[in-house]
Amino acid sequence: MRYGHFDDDQREYVIGQPDTPLPWINYLGTDAYFGIVSNTGGGYSFYRDARLRRLTRYRYNNAPLDVGGRYVYVRDDATGDYWSPSWQPTPERELDDYECRHGLSYTRIASARGGIRAETLYFAPLGETLEVWRVRVTNDRDSAAELSLFSSIEFCLWDAQDDATNYQRNFSTGQVEVVDGVIYHKTEYRERRDHFAYFACSEPLAGFDTQREAFLGAYRGWDRPAAVERGAASDSIAHGWQPIGSHHVRLTLAPGETREVNFLLGYAENPRDDKFDPPGSQTLNKTRVRPVIERWLRPETVEKGYADLRAYWDALLGGLRVRTPDQDTDRMVNVWNAYQCLVTFNMSRSASGYESGIGRGMGFRDSNQDLLGFVHMVPERARERILDIAATQKPTGGAYHQYQPLTKRGNNDIGEGFNDDPLWLILGVAAYLKETGDLALLDVPVPFDNEPGSEVPLYEHLRRSLRYTLERLGPHGLPLIGRADWNDCLNLNCFSDTPGEPFQTTENASGGVAESVFIAGQFVLAAKELAGIARLLERDGEEVFYRAAAEKMAGSIAEHGWDGAWFRRAYDFYGNVIGSGENDEGQIFIEPQGMCILGGVGIEDGLAQRALDSVAERLATPHGIVLQQPAYSSYRIELGEISSYPPGYKENAGIFCHTNPWIMIAEAIVGNGDRAFDYYRRLNPSAREEISEVHRCEPYVYAQMIAGKDAPTHGEAKNSWLSGTAAWNFVAITQWILGVRPDFDGLRIDPVLPADWPGFEVTRSFRGATYEITVRRAEGATSRVTEVLVDGVPVPGNLVPAAAPGTTVRVEAVIG
């Protein structure tokens, strides 16, 4: 069943009933100020870092699941009846109608009750560190209405980890100040007042509250606040305990009249110096921020800010537009998949409905992969991110698995030892160079571990990334896995010297001999990409070396990584093979089947096709391709966390959606267009909209995981939004199935289509030029592109050279 529908013209997903299976969320903000907002007004806001600069409080894993957010209450002062336009937090008060429209970096929620209609538009303006709530209240009655409007947010005491745990301190530190109706949250963070939040309203106030208990009342929740129930705020000032922000506005509306009330939630900083800020610095900065508040409380500023935001997305999405025979493909490529790629680029894996924003920062591996789906939209931001990531790399070529976005320092509690991490930097940089041709990036000095004085050109970071793998090879000539490879839960250096005794773990490459066939395939791909970069730099000797290293690793895979019908997964600490017919469980894994073929292993000798046939036979389900089979039925200490999950969930034979596009790409590489596109549609959120009661997550974005065939809830999604699934699916459909693929020397046109497609059209910006591409299939043709015309002139092969910036190039490609 459906809970809403796509409005393709407006680029919105319209939710028609509030009780979706799970909270269906959206993201506010595009650069530094961000927020999560659900279809019922839940969520929170932060500046740059979801842990260290959290503005508002949110409680994960609550009951109901989505509690706490940006709530507005409407009260009929004549009857005392009140309700929330977002349904939550007053779900027992029945609405006459309800609609939520999630758009690109904005959400609009509207509902009606008793002849009063209210609509709230939430968005974060471009270039500002604030969010706007534009509330429009309409009186649809035949008589005048006396109404009260209450806003509400709960302030977080900045460090979300400390906020959720250190109550003996926090209950004594909450501080607010109210000046001219603006509520300032100025709770000290680690004894330094260098930033504060503010909550403002465009209308004169009838009252306000800043103490949670004064607003809600003792032993009450957000569903029945005492202040709203009695129709009057108490002008409370928080001293410790739980600071909040709430404005009370009285409105008199004539029949048919609409009134607009704007609320602002924002972040500001004081000037930094070498000493604690002197008394009064808060007041000075409030004076400085006041013009910003006054400007954004004006209706005309809000309207323009909203229009500018939509124009921003027009420009971003205009760089790649497709017209195919499949509506779900067009919808995802042109709007929702691209949008998810931007959000995931901004957030990495740090803040969603499933990540609290506390435990994870920016992932080294994650962020490099996210570049793949984002670089064509805003390459300058991709460039900046590459330099940030590389600066966290260690001199060995190893990498911190994660880093904090605010400090850009490696996250020591995660550390290094995920031995696939360094190779992703090569793949991320290669994608950027193919898109932009910006070879100057390779000469930019970048430090190691952000240590001053350690700067070397970025190209040297890439060389050390490859060397990191070459210096850590196991007895089969395959890369050591370290703490884990892409699969964080496959921990093959876990072991126990004595049965029944606690396990030990070696978290670095030097302490264990477990080897990864997956990293071997990734190494082949990365070495070939680095060879391509060396060619551009005219470093002929290095190019030869990298290609030889790739060939040698491919030989090790053929000798020790092939199991007869598929690629093996790994060797564990004891030297036992993983992902083999020799195993009773976990005989075949998806990851090496995809990554080895992406690296070109097994193409010419037919191993790739045999491996993909095994995937189709043993791993494919109607809801996607599971990670491995058979599932592990019990915990196995020598495998680590993977076997701690029940069968069919997450890494234990779940459909880990991130890996599915690797198989789509592999099928395209060997020329299987029907199978590649079939796998694509199985995961496509728009194509799964009809089964929302099964899928449960949002039907407009990809999820990280779908329960596998061994699970009782096969087809149920979890961990939506922030996933490498977004970037890889975008790459699979646009660059390999549709086949419009940036290369070092131009734009390659190499589609591998389903047999029933007559063709398609693409408009794509590439290095400043616009390419209008038409692909058509000759009648009865089943092969790949056999003819390419550029502005009517045939070109050899399928590579279209880069054109001069500002020009428009017309490309015709024929599948012969």
From TrEMBL:
GO biological process, one term: carbohydrate metabolic process
InterPro entries registered for this protein in UniProt: 6-hairpin_glycosidase_sf (IPR008928), 6hp_glycosidase-like_sf (IPR012341), Gal_mutarotase_sf_dom (IPR011013), GH65_N (IPR037018), GH94_catalytic (IPR033432), GH94_Enzymes (IPR052047), Glyco_hydrolase_94_b-supersand (IPR010383)
Keyword Transferase tagged: yes
Domain of life: Bacteria
UniProt domain Glycosyl hydrolase 94 catalytic: residue ranges: 312-739
Pfam families according to UniProt: GH94_b-supersand (PF06165), Glyco_hydro_94 (PF17167)
Keywords: Glycosyltransferase, Transferase
Keyword Glycosyltransferase attributed: yes
Domain Glycosyl hydrolase 94 supersandwich: 11-271
Molecular-function annotations in GO: carbohydrate binding; glycosyltransferase activity
Annotated protein name in UniProt: Glycosyl transferase
